[in-house]
Amino acid sequence: MYPEELKYTQEHEWIRGEDGTCTIGITAYATEQLGDVTYVELPETGVKLAKGAEAGAVESVKAASDIYAPVGGEVVEVNTALDDQPELVNESPYADGWFFKLKDVDPAELSSFMDAAAYAHYVEEQSQ
Length: 128
Description:
Blueprint: E1 7-8, E2 13-18, E3 21-26, H1 28-34, E4 37-41, E5 48-49, E6 54-60, E7 64-68, E8 73-78, H2 81-84, H3 88-91, E9 100-103, H4 107-110, H5 116-126
Antiparallel strand pairs: 1-2, 2-3, 3-9, 4-6, 5-8, 6-7, 8-9
């Protein structure tokens, strides 16, 4: 149910490490909890984010939620497609609905996150 190549946080964010950058988004479980996403606020490119820093926000028909940086790094790209198509977060959370990319991430930070199996178990526990 959850892509094996990703790492997951307890805040229902996913992280894909590739080519010296990390791509950040939210999980399908998070999108189910939010409902239909209507607006996404993303950080500016060039901004350096500390681990845990507020990076943006997601608004939906049900709620508004802040987006936090699960790892520290410099924002090198944001998903500008979400400006006109915020529904991509719901339709394709692991591909077209990503939020932003960070560079200069400490690889050791990634080891503290859950793999797909651990995240699936975590979600199951949260749903009880």
